[in-house]
Design a protein that fits this description.
Number of strands: 11
Order of helices and strands: HEEEHEEHHEEEEEHHE
CATH topology: Rossmann fold
Largest sheet: 7 strands, mixed
Strand content: 15-25%
Number of domains: 1
């Protein structure tokens, strides 16, 4: 028994070294956020969540011409809203994001946001109805102009917009599969049209030897696209610019 314990003690440094090697090779962060330098001038207590839309054109890994723009006062080149250029191309490059996925991601982000302390979050249904009340002209408005009009009608301090860029389901089972891929972005626009904060999530799940942190968070095996949506929504909202830590 003593001999066995001694072996474990001697093996521990080796295990720690192996863990360190794996962590050193971890992929780039899955969530990135950027904040306007003007954000300190704003008090945001009420946020209306606009129903997200979905990228309707074929998914291409190098795509970067996304309409959600960088916060004013920040260089466009400072922020990446689309899929990182370093990721591998998709197995099905002509796939598009199913329209119903946008609803799913909207609800996931909304449910996480409404748990934040000190923040009143208006539902996507209510916000969508106000947008619809503006008529056909609303579809042609830039996010800044749409935010101004919707915020005025709802007495909101800011509007949260979102877009789903990638949604590809896992092919196969948990223990052997082509992994799922999910990517979406969100943008908080103040009632005066200024972009205050943006967040981006992208992940194609990696195996154990490439993403040890992901294994600790979700367990061993490949998860579904819906599980990645929940993970992404949770971690994006954790870095939201307003409100306190989520209540239990």
């Amino acid at each position: 028994m003593r001999h066995h314990g001694a072996c474990v003690v001697r093996l521990l440094p080796c295990v720690l070294v192996a863990v360190g090697i794996v962590l050193a090779g971890c992929p780039p962060t899955k969530v990135t956020v950027d904040t306007s330098p003007e954000i300190e001038k704003y008090r945001v207590k009420m946020v209306a969540v606009m129903p997200f839309d979905a990228l309707a054109t074929p998914q291409v890994a190098e795509r970067r011409d996304v309409e959600l723009q960088a916060p004013q006062g920040m260089l466009r080149s400072d922020i990446t809203f689309a899929i990182p250029q370093t990721v591998e191309k998709f197995d099905s490059p002509t796939a598009v994001v199913p329209p119903h996925v946008a609803v799913k991601v909207t609800e996931a982000v909304y449910e996480k946001l409404r748990r934040l302390e000190g923040l009143l979050v208006l539902s996507p249904e209510a916000t969508g109805q106000v947008k619809d009340s503006l008529g056909a002209k609303a579809s042609g408005l830039a996010a800044a102009d749409l935010a101004k009009q919707v915020a005025a009608k709802m007495s909101a301090d800011a509007i949260l917009f979102g877009r789903v860029l990638v949604y590809q389901e896992r092919v196969g089972g948990r223990w052997g599969a082509t992994p799922a891929t999910v990517g979406f972005e969100v943008k908080l626009v103040a009632a005066d049209g200024r972009t205050l904060w943006v967040g981006n999530y992208y992940e194609k799940q990696k195996p154990l030897n490439e993403d040890l942190g992901g294994v600790f968070q979700r367990g061993i095996g490949f998860v579904t696209a819906d599980e990645l949506v929940q993970y992404g929504a949770d971690h994006v909202v954790q870095q939201f610019a307003f409100g306190g830590p989520a209540s239990k």
